[in-house]
Amino acid sequence: MDNDVSAGSGITTVVGRLALGITLLAFGLGYTEVIDGVSAADAVSIAQYVGGIALFVAGLMALRDRDAANGTAFVTLGALWFTWAVSAEGSADAAGLFLSLFALVVLSLTLAGGDQLGQGAYGLFFVALVLMAVADFADSGGLAKVGGWFAVAAGAVAWYAATAALAHWPTALPRRAAGRGVTATG
């Protein structure tokens, strides 16, 4: 990694966010059932290989580059995606429990700080997991679809964050002055 590049903006972060974004898009679109014949079960291979293995390896690379925040996030998320993929055939209550535990990890990542896009992606993903867990416990297909849309939004934000880093697009929202009539001096 180039010394001029701050931790968290290197290629491993881009790869990790792309892997997370693609996995969330596939996972979320499967839950929304917006594409005829595509369900969450169809996202299992993507979750296992892209969200599981590729994200885990990106996390290891980030840890090697001394990017502890993204390394920890990607390794943990990779392990959880892989586990979700290989255990997708369990009962609804077991799935709800797993998604609840997954949500706790993502909540920790959301509250850990970092850049706005990363926190936004994790925050949306957290809401998606909570909605999907409740949907599994309550056997509510409608709530699962809403959770799917939150996962799609999280995937889009993660994808944008990775693409923005590569394309040099804006990655932070501009800040406003404190109130009306307040101007910055400089």
Automatic annotation (TrEMBL):
UniProt cross-references to InterPro entries, sorted A to Z: Gpr1/Fun34/SatP-like (IPR000791)
Protein name: GPR1/FUN34/yaaH family protein
Chain ranges passing through the membrane: 12-31, 43-63, 70-88, 94-113, 120-138, 150-169
Classification via Pfam families: Gpr1_Fun34_YaaH
Keyword Transmembrane carried by entry: yes
Membrane topology listed for this record: Multi-pass membrane protein
GO cellular component entries: membrane
